[in-house]
What does this fold into?
Amino acid sequence: HDRSKDRPLVVGSVKTNIGHLESAAGVAGLFKVVLSMQYGEIPRHLHFREGNPHFDWNAVPRVVPAEPRPWANGDGRSRLAGVSSFGFSGTNAHIVLEAAPIVDAADAAIDRPLHVLTLSSKSNDALRDLAGRYEESFSGRTDVRLADAAFTANTGRSHFNHRLAGIAETTAPALGGLQGVRGNQE
It folds into this structure.
């Protein structure tokens, strides 16, 4: 009720974009809203010509977008959207979504003084080969961040019975540790 003319209620429909979906309309509407929030743009309504004359279009400032509209988030207000789905069986579902706050990636990074690099393989020979591949990856390169390599090794790889771990601040001491491990295993 407190909307100004410069911030109208934008009314959309998923049916205009992908047709009549029956029972999948609600989840398709949810996808459309989430993608609109993610990309900061409200898609145009493809088939809207004029509003229903039995509806008071002046009661609340609203618009059915004929062209894509930017969905700015810079005015300090959250992006809010409602999705309604009316099922053939009489089931009605309604949800209100709010966009997550925008977080600067630099602010989200955790700066740790030391990193744990864990390697794991199915055999000692495979572990030695894996340590050699990491050693090659770290050798002579300044663009490899130990924090990223350790995170990927620790969370993105399977854990097997043959393991080793090292603690280092940067790739240089980690490289020395990998060379020492390979030397001890040979």
Q: What stands out?
A: The two ends are 76 Å apart (CA to CA). The helical segments are 15-18, 25-39, 105-108, 124-138, 146-155, 171-185. The beta strands are 9-10, 41-42, 62-63, 69-70, 80-86, 92-98, 115-121, 162-168.
